[in-house]
């Protein structure tokens, strides 16, 4: 990995974000503008492929660089940082799939942003943590699978997109597979209006006897458990980039607010320096964990704790930004209220803060039993 | 008349109000809705709805 390559990539992405994304941030959040053009340009620059080897069309700069890219996007727009995570995480899934056919078919296209892709793994991840039942069921027919059921909300999808999801195959276990948005038997329905992030193209996926070829399967039942363990640390850690971007944006709002009202803002509990120190500490933690997620040695408990800390720090920073801005921060045109809604999203998107606390609790209990 | 909540998306089905825009007139009891009916907002079936206590 070359530091020069990383610095150059981040500089070109920061420039693209400033000129082509920042002016759209409010419209993306509230008016449902989906930044497809920006995503394609970001992909062409290498914005989704930092953790992908060159042989699959990647930049091969590491997961830390991918998190830095998501942060750079999130500094201006939390919605698009989330989309950046969706896309780069689908590339991450494909990279680690034991099925070379599905990898060759989709990874270069997804990594370069030529084929936009959403990850519909929320239900499965919650199901595996003992939180809810799985919504997609599959039956085997020869080498293929036939899938039915519904996933309430999947982001960054559309007729010309790819989605990566999982289904239960009864006693056999689970499969994880890729599906094109225009597949026969798949309906993509609009969702009720969200309070923000409206431009993330979040749709309800309804499967009715959708046939999945074995060539589109990322993990078969006998591969699923080890596959999920392999991808989960990077899946969870990558989301920290969204939070870091929102925190940086919130710190900027705090600095701007202090130009006129520092004399009163000093009475608030969370000051810029406190939040910046907290961000730096989290960054170091994530920076140490990212290479472990890449080489498969990360302890999931460390990853979940870092993600929970990230949610809490993001909420604290966004709330502080709004309190620093005061009444004008409550105007819809002010970024502080958008940042607060984006921060809440970081805390409720799977794994949500309550999910993280449950999983951390369960793992700690298990460790205590093992130690006893 | 009872109210039922969709587990995944939180939609409330109020038997008194029904869902006329989705073919369920006011007064339609949850038990009288066909089993293959789907939540209009998220597509799950009746089995994923929970009775809201009074």
Description:
- The complex is a heterodimer of chains A (372) and B (54).
- With 372 residues, chain A is of the alpha+beta class.
- Chain A has three domains: 3-115, Butyryl-Coa Dehydrogenase, subunit A, domain 1 (Orthogonal Bundle); 119-222, Butyryl-CoA Dehydrogenase, subunit A, domain 2 (Beta Barrel), CATH 2.40.110; 226-371, Butyryl-CoA Dehydrogenase, subunit A, domain 3 (Up-down Bundle).
- Chain A has 13 helices and eight strands.
- Chain A has helices at residues 3-21, 25-31, 36-45, 63-74, 78-96, 100-111, 122-128, 221-238, 240-265, 272-295, 300-325, 335-348, 353-371, and strands at 117-120, 136-141, 144-154, 162-168, 174-180, 186-190, 203-212, 217-219.
- In chain A, the strands form two sheets. Chain A has a four-stranded mixed beta sheet with strand order 1-4-5-8.
- Chain A is globular and about 70 Å long.
- By secondary structure, chain B is mainly β.
- Chain B has a single domain, classed as Rubrerythrin, domain 2, CATH 2.20.28.
- Chain B contains no helices and three strands.
- Chain B has strands at residues 3-6, 12-14, 49-51.
- In chain B, a hairpin with a 5-residue loop joins strand 1 (3-6) and strand 2.
- Chain B is 0% helix and 19% strand.
- In chain B, strands 2-1-3 form a three-stranded antiparallel beta sheet, with no helix packed on it.
- The model of chain B has no long low-confidence stretch (mean pLDDT 96).
- The chains are: A alpha+beta (372), B mainly beta (54).
- Chain A binds chain B through residues 123, 132-133, 135, 150, 152-153, 189, 191-192, 204, 206, and chain B through 7-9, 11, 38, 41-44, 48.
